[in-house]
Amino acid sequence: MPVKDHKQFKPLSLVDQVSQQIQEDILTHQLAIGDRLPTEPKLMARFNVGRSTVREAIKVLVNLGLIEVKQGKGTTIINDTLPDQTISSTLKNAPVIEAYEARKALEVGIVDLACHNRNATDLKAMNYYLEIRSAAAKLHSLDAYRHADEQFHEAITEATHNSVITDIYTDFWNSFKDRFGAGFTKTELYHEQSIIHQNILEAIKQQDPHQAVYWIEKNITLLKQTVND
Questions:
Q1: Burial class (CB in 10 A: 0-12, 13-18, 19+), 15
Q2: Residues 44-75 pLDDT 10s
Q3: Domains in the chain, please, with CATH?
Q4: CB contact at 8 A, 80 and 27
Q5: Where does the HTH gntR-type domain start and stop, copy by copy (predicted)?
Q6: From the CB of residue 52, how many other CB atoms can be counted at a distance below 10 Å?
Q7: Is 31 helix (H, G, I), strand (E, B) or coil?
């Protein structure tokens, strides 16, 4: 069934709807291994969504290992089964303290490497998503706020320029947000988190891993306080 766009759509859920429908096509062999995924314009028309939504949905499928994108060769189906959900299962049952310790360990390493490897494009992306995040908070749009926040942290991960780290963190984050997402999208946290996130960006900009790690740890501590096991 086509996904219908509307004025108050939820960015994250819309991406999920598109990615899940394509995923179903692959898992039910309507699209076989070796087949090309329909072009962006065709997917946009099918689901009645914009290009950015299609691209985000494709990224989800790439992270699941179902498709492969090669410049000049299009997008190809490379797998028709979902990967082992070990991280998801572990996080679902893990104590809160262990889940947050794992997140801190990952993000500390990520932000440290991002300080060394970031470039002007990375900084521009981080700044852009913080601006979107701020606008969403003022409108009390939690879904848009969550989406922009995720994009900000994804931009930090991309700034490591390490594909292994990016894939590992993406798998972890998708499972982590399923369990704890409601706790870190509260608008009452926005003011304090806004200061923290701006300081994270500034530390990465100044290539100061000590300060970047300090603010990442402070952010995780703040979020952990809002979550009940």
A1: buried
A2: 999 999 999 999 899 889 888 899 988 777 89
A3: 11-77 (1.10.10.10), 86-224 (1.20.120.530)
A4: yes
A5: 12-80
A6: 11
A7: coil
